[in-house]
Automatic annotation (TrEMBL):
It comes from Rhodopseudomonas palustris. This is GntR family transcriptional regulator. The keyword rRNA processing does not apply. GO terms for molecular function: DNA binding; DNA-binding transcription factor activity. Keywords: DNA-binding, Transcription, Transcription regulation. Residues 15-82 form the HTH gntR-type domain. SMART domains: FCD (SM00895), HTH_GNTR (SM00345). The keyword Acetylation does not apply. Gene3D superfamilies: GntR ligand-binding domain-like (1.20.120.530), Winged helix-like DNA-binding domain superfamily/Winged helix DNA-binding domain (1.10.10.10). CDD domains: WHTH_GntR.
Amino acid sequence: MTKVEPETPAPARSTTRAETLRRSLEEMIMSGALKPGDRLDETELATRFEVSRTPVREALKSLLATGLVEMSGRQGLTVAAISIGTLLEMFQLMAELEGLHAKLAARRASLPQRERMIAAHEQLKKTLERGDPQLFYDVNREFHEAIYEASQSEFLADQTRALRRRVAPYRRYVTYQPGRMAATITEHQRILDAIMSADGEAAQRAARDHVNLLGDNLADFIASLPPEMTRKSA
């Protein structure tokens, strides 16, 4: 009797497709291509990405668990919208996490890691001259990633990235504020100088202040958000 080798289980293939799709949807949410409040229809997504509904369902389930997607009554699944109060709390926490990264980087950064931070900062300065907020936002992420690496705390970096993904659609509006890109360069220089001087406390303060939304910046940020991107507090 001829032995029949078992086929590769379908769930494994589906899971792979689901993970690829999850990453694509996550990037679309972070980039603003999918905005808070946008409806996520399984059939439409399956047609768009040329897959069956099964991996779409699995991808959406994964995004639901991370908080990037939420159930919105009759609308079904939508890109999560966040209340102003919760959003501000998230930014405050983000500031603390970024500050801790900078403090650790000042103590732990290797020479190659220091060079990566410097290179990212120089690239961001060149990007500023082009006046492209979207490109600036993307390059800015590289500077922060360089600090995460230099902090040499993978667990902390994972937690920070997770929160960064949650607030990404909103952070973009901070970048678009008049004068914000030039201010970012100045603030990054303070962070970088403190890290290069191995002054952990100064690096922590500079990084925390860079992320925190205070005073007029806070009012401008809230005013810039389209109503559909936020929801009323319960």
